[in-house]
Structures are given as C-alpha cells and as structure tokens.
Amino acid sequence: PWCRLLEELAPAAAAPWATRRDALYFSGSLLNGRWRRRLRRLVDEQAKAGGTDLHVRDVQSKFFGGAQPRWAHGQLAEQANRSVAPRALHEACGWRYVLSIPGYGYSSRLRALLACGSTVIHLRPPWAEYFEPLLRDNCNVVVVDKVEQILPTLRALRADEGRARRIAESGRALALGALAWPNVLGYLRAMLEEYAARRTEPVAPPAPGDGFTRVGSARELMDVAGLCRCREPGGGRECAGRKCCVGWDCASKRLGCGGATT
Questions:
Q1: Three-class SS state of 247
Q2: d(C-alpha 2, C-alpha 248), whole Å
Q3: pLDDT, tens only, 153-205
Q4: Is the Cβ–Cβ distance between 46 and 26 less than 8 Å?
Q5: Could you give the CA distance from residue 114 to residue 120 in angstroms, rounded to a whole number?
Q6: Is the predicted pLDDT of residue 262 greater than 60, yes or no?
Q7: What three-state secondary structure class fits 252?
Q8: What percent of the chain shows pLDDT beyond 70?
Q9: What is the reported pTM?
Q10: Residues 6+ away with beta carbon under 8 Å from 235
Q11: Least buried of 11, 153, 162, 226, by fewest C-beta within 10 Å?
Q12: What is d(CA 4, CA 125) in angstroms, rounded to the nearest whole number?
C-alpha cells in the first residue's frame, strides 16, 4: 500500500545527491509493451557503443503468468537468457536519475520514483494517473514523448546538475505533500461524494441473473471472486474449489494504514 511504501522508501530517499550514481536507472521487463521493447533496443545500442548513461535491468516478464500466448514464447525464452532477478523498489533511490516508462498499461511506480528524491524522466503515455495534473514538466518531473528523447534529455540534465537537483527536490515534495496518504484518502472521498451527488436517480439492488452482485465487505469480495487465503491455518479445508491468493492479492488483507482498516 502507498502509505506503507512511503515509509519504506524514506531511508533510501534520504541519500545525499553526491552519493547517488550518476546514470539513469530502470528495473523491469523490457518485453511488456512497445515502449519497453524500444527501450531494450536503445540499451543494446548503448552497450555496443560502450555507453554508460543507462543502467537498465531487464527483469523476466510476469505479465502473462502461466497462460503465455503463443506469440510471446520465443521472446520470453530469449529474455530468460538475459534477464535478472527483481530488485526492491527502494534501490532506485540510489540513482540521480530514474525512468518512468509504461508497459502494456500504466506503471504504478511513478509516485514511488518521485518520492525517491531522484530526477524522474517520465515517458508520457496516452493515459494519466489521477495526480498527473499536478506534474509540471521541468519543475517536478521531466516529460518525454518517445524513447528516442530519453538520452538527449538525460544528457541535458547531467550538464545542468543544479536544475536536475531542483526538479528532484520538487518531485519529492509533491510525493510527501499532495500525495501523502491522508490527501489520497481525501481525494478518494471527494471523488465518491461527487459521484453520489451527480447520481440523482435511485440505485436499484441487483436482480438475480443480471450479472451484478452487491458487495458490502472485503470478505464478500473474496467470495464473489472465488479467492481464499489458502496458506493460512485451516485454509486448506475452507478453500476447496477456490483460487489461492497471497499477500496484497487478497482483498481481506489489512493495509495497516492510518484512516483505513482494510
């Protein structure tokens, strides 16, 4: 959860700028989506040229799970020969520059990268997270529109280290301020209240067979989804015929965050 992640990132985010590595860091699958496949080609080009601007870790793709489409088999097998193990997210905070790049969908790490206190280069996809209107190019983030712009943008930042540091500090201030956990809850509350205010017609309860089920708790959501925490004591008996979920994939796992119970 975001509230817990902010706390876990804090020690690494406190690293002085002078001790951080002077390169652009990314860790994730370079197979997921067209932007990351293009990044993979850029990394290969840099390696052949002996460049040191990029520190990119190609992590084995988990997107398809066990149901991998036939077209991806060859690419996944090739990636397995060159991929590395995942690293904890806080390791990104050890670099001066970090890359936010989408996969098949949005990459949920953007908030965490801002919280690191590193300069975030964000490749803008044709969608946005709810907080992105708060982002200002060359103020608290650096926005690029295509992979080919990443290296020129990085080199311009490295040539003006003072500007890069100011952007990094502003990005972290945004993560700790507007994106702090109470403000996230406040946004969610305001959004739901606005939805409720705009819906003037009465809400009819779901009728049998219409494909909808009213859910009133996390436990009911688990029942509807057919999920069960099978690895807990006694879970083997009550989980018969259900899918096992682990950790945050289980809707009933408590967040442990102030202002929320589940």
A1: helix
A2: 12
A3: 999 999 999 999 999 999 999 999 999 999 999 999 999 999 989 988 887 77
A4: no
A5: 6
A6: no
A7: coil
A8: 86
A9: 0.81
A10: 228, 229
A11: 162
A12: 27
CB 129 within 8 A of CB 110: yes
Buried b (16+ CB within 10 A) or exposed e, 218-248: eeebbeeeebbbbeeeeeeeebeebeebeee
d(CA 153, CA 148): 9
Structure-token pair, residue 195: 């939805």
Locate 57 and state its tokens.
Answer: 């870790």
Distance between CA 22 and CA 55 in Å, rounded? 10
Q: Where are the alpha helices (DSSP H) in the chain?
A: 2-13, 34-49, 73-80, 110-115, 150-159, 161-176, 181-198, 218-225, 235-238
State the pairing for strand pair 119-123/95-100.
parallel
Instruction: Report residue 176 as tokens.
Output: 């700790």
Residue written as token pair 């702090």 = 180
d(CA 96, CA 171): 13
∠ at Cα 185 (253, 195), nearest 5°?
Answer: 105
